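Table 4 source record.
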Amino acid sequence: MMTLVEINEMSPNRLVSWFMIGSYAYYRLGKRVMEDSDFDFLVQRLKECYNQADHPHAKLITEEHLEAGTGYDIEFPTIVRYATRDYMQENGLW
């Protein structure tokens, strides 16, 4: 599972990726790739540096998502779905 230390070291673009992965795993697969408190920390960090992110999926994350701390209604791109499953399989979470 992703840890606070790893999240704290993430660039803005990596935070976007992990927001998407964490949301997809939780809301579509019913699994977690990080603890809830770690996801909350990721969201807080992303809120602080969102304007620095130039990740292609950043536009899918709205201010409302960040304020609510959830990506439940995002239409997840195929690459996010496969990246999530790959991570989960590689780390024994699947």
